[in-house]
Every structure is written in structure tokens, then in C-alpha cells.
Amino acid sequence: MPTAHRSTASELPRYMAVHPMFQGLSEADLGLIVDQGSSLMRLPRGQALFSSGETCEHLMIIITGQVKVFALATHGGEKVLELIGPGQTIGESSIFNDQPQAFNAQTLTETLLLRIPKRAITAQIKRDPGFALRLLADASQRIRGLQHDVESYCLRSGLQRVVGFLLEDQRHSHERRAPHTVSLPVSKATIASRLSLTPEYFSRVLRELEDEGLIQISRRDIHILQPEELASYTLQ
């Protein structure tokens, strides 16, 4: 069962103030949001945040941990649509409409999150239109990410999707790619589902890339040894 994190009301604005959505708000505004029922929740692994068909009355900001958003197939399988980590939000759709959730959300690890009631968010929007713009900017960024995912599923091979995942942190960098390490925050099976691949295929591609000397696998750490060569490997 979820438990309230032991904290004083004075600690909550500190968590909010570091998030871009709340930057620029006065101490008074942050205090009003806290006073309307905001709280920190520590959730165990496997805790459902909401299920498809349910309403969600809170905006949630992940402080630590990982959450998956997923759909369930009629045969019982699941498709991971999004992985949400520290600093990211979930539940925005409930702010703008009263429609039930289309998907499910569940913690993948022990997770600490900041839960802010819908009424507190809507009240702040009325006080500060700039806050509404930051909220929309955050939602728009996630939409762009999902659009990129759809493009990847439709137009890229499985190998290209795996390589794209490994180089994702440097995708927008204009500098020459440097060797780095990708630490998998969740299981390989979850990441495979996120990439619309089977776990077996995902593992097979990783072994292939390791055999080629492009990466080195150490449990959940994947060391990218030759990023430039890895990026061009899918063109061969």
C-alpha cells in the first residue's frame, strides 16, 4: 500500500521549486498549492497509480524511481508505451478534462513522487497564465517524444531502434559522440516492450553489437565503446 512520506509542509515547496513547471512561482503561490492537499508519497515496486478507465485527480511528479505507462492486450500481454523517471510528470490529462485514463500506470521500482491535486493546479492556472504555458510546454514535449516513438516503430528496423535507444542521450548533441555508459533503469524485457521488440530479439541484438566490439555489457550497464561506428552500423 502507498504510504505518506514523512515530511513537513515546508519541505514540499523545495521539491516543487526545482521543477521547471514551478520555477518563478512565489513562496506564497507554492504555499497555496501545498495547502490544497499536496503530498509526498513513497510507493513500493508494482504499485498501480491508475488503471485504464479510472479517473486521475492528481498531477504526479516523480522524485525518485521509475513508472511505466502501458496498455493491456486482450490475451493478457502488455505493451509499454512510456517510461517515466525522475523529474517527469504523469496525470496531466486529468487537468484539462474529466475523461478516464486510456492506459495504466505502475511503479517499476520503489518510487517517491509528489502528488498535487487537480484543484490546486487549476487554481494556480487561474492566478498565473504563465504557469499554464509551462504546463502545456511540458505536455507538448512528451507528445513530441511519443510522435518520435511512432515514427521509429513505423519506419525503423529493430536493429535501428536498439541503436537509437543506446545513443538517445546524444541524439541532440552537435558534438562528436563520445564513449559513454547507458545504465538500464529497468529490466531488458521492459525496455524491449518499450521499443516494440521481443525480449529475445533485444538480447540478440545486444549480443551482436558486443561481438562486433561496439558495446560491452556488464549486467545493467552497457558501455558504448565506439559510438560513431555504432551509429553507422545500421547502414551496413
UniProtKB/TrEMBL annotation:
Keywords: DNA-binding, Transcription, Transcription regulation. GO terms for cellular component: cytosol. GO terms for molecular function: DNA binding; DNA-binding transcription factor activity. This is Crp/Fnr family transcriptional regulator. Transmembrane segments: none annotated. Residues 156-228 form the HTH crp-type domain. The keyword Protein transport does not apply. Residues 21-142 form the Cyclic nucleotide-binding domain.
